[in-house]
Amino acid sequence: MADLLIEGLTKRFGGVTAVDNISLHVADGEFVTLLGPSGCGKSTTLAAIAGLDQADGGRIEVGGTVYFDAARGIYRPPEARSCGLVFQSYALWPHMTVADNVAFPLSLRKVPGPERRRRIEEVLALVEMERFADRYPHQLSGGQQQRVALARTLVYHPAILLLDEPLSNLDAKLRDRARAWLAELRTRLRLTTIYVTHDQIEALSLSDRVVVMNGGRIAQVGAPQEIYERPADPFVADFIGTTNFLPARVVGAAPAGGRTLLELADGQRLEVVAERPAAEGSRVTIAYRPEQIRVAPEGGGGEDGSVLSTHVTSRSYIGGNWQIGLDLAGSPMRLEARQAPAGDPLRLWLPHSGGILFQGGADAAA
Ligand SMILES: Nc1ncnc2c1ncn2[C@@H]1O[C@H](COP(=O)(O)OP(=O)(O)O)[C@@H](O)[C@H]1O
Ligand SMILES: [Mg+2]
Description:
This protein is an alpha+beta fold and about 375 residues long. Helices cover about 25% and strands about 35% of the residues.
């Protein structure tokens, strides 16, 4: 068990800065996910922690042991670091049984026979694969192979666990099950874990904290609910969940916590409670989650929200609900409703509170 400290980590590939001055502290036993689009530097960060690749700058410490310190010229090779690394490709040895696959890291570390057998049994029970000890990898499903890969890592008791998109090779159903299983395992293990994914559901459901990355930098760090409900910028709002962005101009400024009056491109007006005041005349963008907005009730809805006229651009049945596409003053909006909207234009209800106001116009959401 150990904490992880990353300070000013930087890694360049030629002209590309893959990881750009990242700092992060992960507490002992904490489960932290690096989340972001492909190419944002997640795997490079993980590889630097594991020592697979030497970074250009910064410092990495695990449980007080310095793994890397560019300024002091310290670089510990991977075999001298206590990191359990699991990739999306399971990389099991095809000619070895499950038990032999799991035993391999122990023989490398010269763990004696009886102790080795005890640990193999223990770890296979942990990943619920004890019945499959004598099978070969090709006799297992993808999900089972991934569990063996995890067991092979856990068997040597690493100080921290590093998982790089471990579920992304599984099909959707298996992935759901593997995710639930991983969530359960995680509460039993209490092992410091860095989990890498581009899947927001995995990130939100598994993590103590989520680190959203964008272009090699950290865009936001926070608990899952905080990231979802209070995104720090339009990138985070857009990347996590579906978000409706509405560019507007401030026509009635208000102090923090007061109702700011906004005007849309087509002249319609709405009021929003902003946490930070926005200046009169300034351009802003409001972000709403699909579950925050509704079709306005017949003849009403103006009490705790604004009612605006929109055009219906699409309607699709998604099982239980309808997904409705709208055009509001030139901006696309998406919401779900129990019933397909009748008629066009459609009156849309936007709450006074709950939308998030960002400074800047339409390009802020791009
Ligand atoms: N070995 C490499 N050589 C050159 N460029 C690389 C190498 N590895 C990663 N990159 C680049 O660094 C950036 C970050 O990559 P990566 O960390 O793999 O992203 P992610 O895991 O978030 O998808 C990307 O622009 C990628 O093309
Ligand atoms: Mg990657």
